[in-house]
Amino acid sequence: MKYIFINIWRVLLRELHMMFARPLYLFASVGVMLLSTFFFLTLMQGGSAEKMPVAVVDLDQTSISRRLIHEMQATPSVDIQLITNSYPEAREAMQQGRIYGIFVIPECFYDELVSFKRPKMDFYVTNAYTVGGNTAYKQMLTMVNLTSGAFQREVLRKKGLPDEIIMHRIQPLAIEGHMIANPWGNYSVYLVSTILPGILGLICLMLTIFAIGFELKMRTSHAWLKAAGGNYTVAMIGKLIPYTLIYIILGVGCHIILYRFTGFPVYGSHSRLMFGLLLFIFAMEGLGITLIGLLPTLRDALSIGALYSMLGFSLSGFTYPQMSMLAPVKALSYMEPLRHYYLIYVNEALMAAPVENSIPHMLALTAFMLASLFVAPRLCNALIYQNYPLK
Question: Which residue of 44, 61, 164, 240 shows the fewest CB atoms closer than 10 Å?
Answer without folding.
Answer: 164
